[in-house]
Amino acid sequence: MVKKILVLHTGGTIAMSEDENGAVAPGAENPLNQFKNPFGSEYELLIENIFNIPSPHMGPAEMLQLKKRIMDAYEKDQIDGVVITHGTDTLEETAYFLDLTVPLKIPIVLTGAMRSANEIGSDGLYNFKTAILTAASPEARGMGVLVVMNDEIHTARYVTKTHTTNVATFRTPTFGPIGLILRDEVRFFEKLLHHVSLPIDQVVDHVYLFKAYAGMDPELLEMAATSKTNGVVIEALGAGNLPPRVLSALEKLLALKIPVVLVSRSFNGIAQEVYAYPGGGVQLKQMGVTFCHGLNGQKARIKLLVGLSAGLSGKELATFVSEAIS
Ligand SMILES: NC(=O)C[C@H](N)C(=O)O
Q1: Co-location of 94 and 147 in the same domain
Q2: Which atom of ligand 1 is nearest to the CA of 89?
Q3: Which of 136, 155, 188 corresponds to the end of one domain?
Q4: Does 132 lie in the same domain as 38?
Q5: Are 131 and 232 found together in one domain?
Q6: Please, are residues 163 and 170 in contact by the beta-carbon 8 Å criterion?
Q7: What SMART domains does this protein's entry cite (predicted)?
Q8: By Cβ atoms counted within 10 A, which residue in 1, 152, 164, 202 is the most buried?
Q9: Given 133, 158, 188, which residue is the final one in a domain?
Q10: How many C-beta atoms surround the C-beta of residue 88 within 10 A?
Q11: What are the C-alpha distances in Å from 217 to residues 152, 247, 253, 277?
């Protein structure tokens, strides 16, 4: 049976080249257009250049456009899988957005490159090839959105970019990858236990992300306490604690019924209500802060944004946002 794979190119380093001074930028032609299908007639690739942007230019509106394109192709073209090529800087956010909003079992795989098309050791075409193999793999069905880079398969929910330039940049802290590519063979060794998706057809804005630090100043958080703000995520300290100086700003946000979501700024582990000192997790929980277990700040922000965009509020929103380990 022929595998029909929808390929959506969005830009990023994988679609860029280096000039004689070493500066990397998109050229007149996307180098991915040169890709010759190495799989023969077993694979039918439906290739579209949906955007050609570096991933710092990607936002929820473009993510929603990708989601709509996938749904449309699924209904009209009976696709078996999807590959999205993407800049690596915000790849994890687009991947998680799609994970939360596309209610399909077909494999959806994101990939990118750390070295542009004409650099020595360029990883783009190789990652693209392995992403296609994964998207065509029956074992990848029902695993949520996946990120394939450097011969590893990661879940959209937990993967994160950990290095500015190294090709082994994508990692899953605490848990590790769920599969590997071994010389053209796709092997999974973990299963996704639980997967939720919410139907949305618009995205809200003004969902902010803050990072806590020793002696954190309250002014920026206070500025977010306005009726325009839809939600706030804070990357808290350690197990989930904040400096007491910001507590009055938190009270102002919560009094305005603005959801405040807490994750840890630590690379491994999860935020939990452990400490009972002023600003500790126990107090934050009592104040009405929602603990999000296991996501990093940028993913918790995507989850909050998706929940709000689906019209969730109060307890329902808090439950949706907090349940990340399952
Ligand atoms: N490696 C990359 O793709 C990084 C690039 N700045 C991007 O995200 O578009």
Answers
A1: yes
A2: 8
A3: 188
A4: yes
A5: no
A6: no
A7: Asparaginase
A8: 152
A9: 188
A10: 24
A11: 40, 11, 15, 19
By most ligand atoms within 8 Å of CB, the mutation choice from 9, 14, 55 for ligand 1 is 55
Please give the distance, rounded to the nearest whole angstrom, from the Cα atom of residue 51 to the centre of ligand 1.
Answer: 14
Residues 126 and 217 occupy one common structural domain: no
Question: ipTM value of the model?
Answer: 0.98
Both 241 and 125 in a single domain?
no
Helix (H, G, I), strand (E, B) or coil at 263: strand
Please give the tally of structural domains in the chain: 2
Distance 15 CA to ligand 1 centre (A): 9
**144 within domain boundaries:** yes
User: What is the position in ligand 1's atom list of the atom closest to the CA of 86?
Assistant: 3
Domain assignment present for residue 177? The answer is yes
Instruction: List the one residue out of 105, 42, 111 whose CA is nearest residue 74.
Output: 105
Structural domain containing residue 229: 207-322
- State pLDDT tens for residues 286-320: 999 999 988 999 999 999 999 999 999 999 999 99
User: Of residues 10, 13, 90, 172, which has the active-site annotation?
Assistant: 13
With a 6 A CB cut-off, is 89 part of the ligand 1 pocket? yes
Closest CA to 301 of 221, 166, 209, 215: 209
Pick the residue whose CA is nearest to atom 3 on ligand 1.
87
Same domain, yes or no: 246 and 212 = yes
User: Does the residue 232 lie in any domain?
Assistant: yes
pLDDT band at 194 (very low <50, low <70, confident <90, very high): confident
Phi, psi values for residue 63, rounded to 5°? -60, -40
Does residue 114 contact residue 169 with C-beta atoms inside 8 Å? Answer: yes
Q: In this structure, what CATH number is given to the domain that contains residue 271?
A: 3.40.50.40
Residue 34, domain member (yes or no)? yes
* Beta-sheet pairing, 81-85 with 108-111: parallel
Q: Is the CB of 112 under 6 A from ligand 1?
A: yes
Active site (annotated) includes residue 174: no
Q: State pTM to two decimals.
A: 0.96
Report whether residue 88 contacts ligand 1, using a CB cutoff of 6 Å.
Answer: yes
Whether residues 135 and 238 fall in one domain: no
